[in-house]
Specification:
This protein is of the alpha/beta class. It folds into two domains: 33 residues; 248 residues, Alpha/Beta hydrolase fold, catalytic domain (Rossmann fold, 3-Layer(aba) Sandwich), CATH 3.40.50. Helix content is 42%, strand content 14%. The protein contains ten helices and nine strands. The strands form two sheets. Strands 1-3-2-4-5-8-9 form a seven-stranded mixed beta sheet, with helices on both faces. A two-stranded antiparallel ribbon has the order 6-7. Strand 8, helix 9 and strand 9 form a beta-alpha-beta unit.
């Protein structure tokens, strides 16, 4: 009888806890929507699309940001390439820069199609096209590179799998698949922005609340990007920058993906003082110099 009573109390506690968390999450998303600073078009500051550099450039660079991120995740990198004469486009992925609720409505194919559309438009106008993807943007850039065959592919802390930590117990992918049907939003906040330079955290755009359906989309994009048949279609030069202590995007999964690419020109840059947001962290100057050198070396 005591065991049964304890079980009922435990189940009741879980139900009440779930209802409270769900209510808090909905309130949190509402507050995020209301309190966000936005531009004239309604896009949140830090996530806006950007187009820089001369229209008459011989080459173009497309920047693809990561999961729940935005254009400012690349810090100065787009401006530096524009100053060197490149036409630069920093896109905004569907469901980003508006509301977590918008991202929850996006399917993996929506994100891939958006990157493909941007890449096709630039390739039609410019002799060279370089894709630069960060985090999930790296996976999306890989998928699109297998189709449009750009002049070069830059993968900055690309997501091909989530870094596992012992305290997760089960892989985070497993937790996501188990909880997503019942937990609509997961709190992120600045605490979970993975950058070692603490002063950079408030400057990096990210949703405070992540939609669980968006997490499922992330997993689907990663699975697609690491398919052997797709990676075998990557023939362009590849620059891969990553930290072995990246606490978000697994460097081991990225290593396996890059190794499987068919390209005969692959460059790897390991970053020693950096976590996931490589454009904002302590090795950001090394990141900038490496990308500039790689892009300008392309035939």
């Amino acid at each position: 009888m005591r065991i049964r009573r304890f079980g009922l109390w435990f189940v009741g506690f879980l139900v009440v806890g779930f209802l409270l968390y769900t209510g808090v999450a909905q309130v949190g998303v509402n507050m995020e929507e209301r309190s966000s600073m936005r531009d004239a078009s309604g896009i949140r500051i830090g996530a806006e699309e950007r187009t820089l550099g001369p229209e008459s450039a011989l080459g173009a660079v497309l920047f693809v940001h990561g999961f729940v991120g935005g254009s400012n995740n690349f810090e100065q990198m787009p401006d530096l390439l524009a100053q060197r004469g490149w036409r630069v486009r920093v896109m905004r992925l569907p469901g980003h820069g508006t509301s977590p609720r918008d991202f929850a409505r996006q399917a993996p194919g929506d994100l891939i199609a958006a990157v493909r559309k941007e890449a096709d438009a630039l390739k039609q106008r410019y002799a060279k096209l370089v894709l630069v993807g960060h985090s999930m943007g790296g996976a999306l850039s890989t998928i699109v590179a297998s189709e449009v065959q750009p002049s070069g592919l830059v993968l900055a802390a690309p997501y091909f799998g989530i870094t596992h930590h012992w305290y997760y117990g089960l892989p985070l992918e497993t937790w996501t698949q188990l909880l997503a049907p019942v937990v609509p939003y997961v709190y992120k906040g600045q605490f979970f922005i993975q950058v070692n330079r603490k002063e950079a955290k408030p400057q990096i755009f990210s949703y405070t609340w992540m939609p669980s359906k968006g997490l499922l989309t992330l997993l689907a994009v990663g699975r697609r990007a690491r398919e052997p048949e797709l990676l075998a279609k990557i023939h362009c030069p590849v620059l891969w920058l990553h930290s072995k202590t990246d606490s978000a995007a697994s460097p081991d999964a990225a290593q396996a993906a890059v190794d499987a690419m068919a390209s005969t020109h692959k460059e790897t840059v390991w970053l020693g003082r950096t976590s996931h947001h490589v454009f904002w962290d302590y090795d950001r100057e090394q990141v900038q110099k490496s990308i500039i050198a790689f892009v300008e070396s392309l035939p």
